[in-house]
Automatic annotation (TrEMBL):
<protein>
    <recommendedName>
        <fullName>DUF2147 domain-containing protein</fullName>
    </recommendedName>
</protein>
<feature type="domain" description="DUF2147">
    <location>
        <begin position="20"/>
        <end position="89"/>
    </location>
</feature>
<dbReference type="InterPro" id="IPR019223">
    <property type="entry name" value="DUF2147"/>
</dbReference>
<dbReference type="Pfam" id="PF09917">
    <property type="entry name" value="DUF2147"/>
</dbReference>
Length: 91
């Protein structure tokens, strides 16, 4: 991942809950516990941490058929009240 232009990342996650408190952001495992949904390219029942806000959200992921686009949905409780983000693999 590359940071957006003009953004200077913090070194540590000061707002994060334990066990992430004051851990280095670079190299931090931000996705955990995702379970594959058999017969699909979907993963669900995971958790994602936002090191900027220090919050942990429920996460589910869908990988497109070519494996180039990964769409992650993060929410607190109800998925309809969450937010989606798409990551694109560069070759």
């Amino acid at each position: 991942m590359t940071p957006r232009p003009g953004y200077s990342p913090r070194e540590t996650c000061n707002k994060c809950p334990a066990p992430y408190t004051n851990q280095p952001i670079l190299g931090m495992e931000i996705l955990k516990g995702l379970k594959h949904v058999p017969g699909t390219n979907n993963y669900e029942k995971g958790r994602v941490i936002d090191p900027l806000a220090g919050k942990v959200y429920d996460a589910k992921i869908k990988l497109n058929a070519t494996g180039k686009r990964l769409t992650m949905r993060a929410s607190v409780g109800v998925s309809a009240l969450g937010r989606s983000q798409t990551w694109i693999r560069l070759d």
